[in-house]
């Protein structure tokens, strides 16, 4: 009887071990960005660097409502949430949301809004005041936007809008508008640096 009892528990132990060994694993998928990079090449977090009163600690480019279309802003990084990932493909900047949703980063003309730079970065497809024909590119670690022979030289502005700091730009050198602060957008990912 003791022999049958021991044999039964050895059989259960063997079954449990083979079940655990049969679970598929993929090397290198312990990091979220490695998996996403296989779907969307050269994905990266975009750091927002600027003066401390405006950019608190480590901040990343994000929609004012994370993972939803809308105005882009600098959100303080949290241990509870990974910053969104962006990818540059065919001169267009994209934000990866999940396997079925990737949003374009659009530039809209805001010259009708007094006191802010004329171009604003927004997430998602836009139909009103959309600036078409621009080119996003990396120069070293810095993100830039060019439109024909004009460009922002990597200089963006964080300006108050809808309760957050929207990200704006000029295409020619200009004075900083009142209430706005100069910021720059960077990726320190080797995948992006090696892609450029």
Name some characteristics of this structure.
elongated; three-stranded antiparallel β-sheet; 196 residues; Trefoil (Acidic Fibroblast Growth Factor, subunit A); signal
Give your account of this protein's structure.
The protein is an alpha+beta fold. It has one domain (30-195): Trefoil (Trefoil (Acidic Fibroblast Growth Factor, subunit A)). Helices cover 17% and strands 37% of the residues. It contains three helices and 13 strands. The chain has helices at 2-21, 32-39, 190-195; strands at 47-49, 59-63, 70-76, 85-89, 92-98, 101-109, 119-123, 135-139, 142-147, 150-151, 156-161, 164-169, 181-186. The strands form two sheets. The chain has a seven-stranded antiparallel barrel with strand order 1-2-3-7-12-11-13. Strands 8-9-10 form a three-stranded antiparallel sheet, with no helix packed on it. The longest helix has 20 residues, at 2-21. Residues 1-22 form the signal peptide. Keywords: Signal.
Work out the helix count: 3
Oligomer: single chain
- Are there runs of 5+ residues with pLDDT below 50, and where? 19-35
Q: Helix amount, in percent?
A: 10-25%
Largest sheet: 7 strands, antiparallel, barrel
Helix-strand pattern: HHEEEEEEEEEEEEEH
Radius of gyration: 23 Å
CATH topology grouping:
Trefoil (Acidic Fibroblast Growth Factor, subunit A)
Which CATH architecture would you pick?
A: Trefoil
Strand order of the largest sheet: 1-2-3-7-12-11-13
- What percent of residues are in strands? 35-45%
The mean pLDDT is: 79
CATH C-level class is: Mainly Beta
Shape: elongated
Kindly give the count of domains.
1
What is the CA-CA span between the terminal residues? 71 Å
| Class based on secondary structure composition and strand pairing | alpha+beta
How many strands?
13
């Amino acid at each position: 009887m003791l022999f049958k009892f021991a044999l039964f528990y050895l059989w259960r132990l063997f079954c449990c071990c083979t079940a655990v060994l049969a679970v598929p694993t993929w090397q290198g998928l312990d990091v979220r960005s490695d998996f996403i990079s296989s779907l969307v090449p050269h994905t990266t977090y975009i750091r927002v660097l600027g003066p401390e009163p405006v950019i608190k600690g480590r901040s990343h480019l994000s929609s004012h409502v994370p993972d939803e279309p809308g105005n882009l802003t600098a959100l303080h990084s949290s241990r509870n949430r990974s910053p969104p990932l962006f990818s540059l493909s065919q001169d267009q900047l994209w934000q990866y949301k999940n396997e079925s949703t990737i949003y374009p980063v659009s530039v809209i003309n805001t010259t009708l809004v007094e006191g802010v730079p004329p171009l604003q970065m927004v997430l998602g497809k836009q139909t009103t005041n959309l600036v078409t024909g621009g080119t996003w590119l990396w120069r070293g670690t810095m993100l830039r936007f060019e439109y024909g022979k004009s460009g922002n030289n990597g200089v963006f502005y964080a300006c108050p809008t809808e309760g957050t700091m929207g990200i704006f730009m000029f295409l020619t050198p200009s004075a900083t508008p009142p209430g706005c602060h100069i910021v720059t957008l960077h990726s320190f990912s080797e995948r992006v640096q090696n892609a450029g």
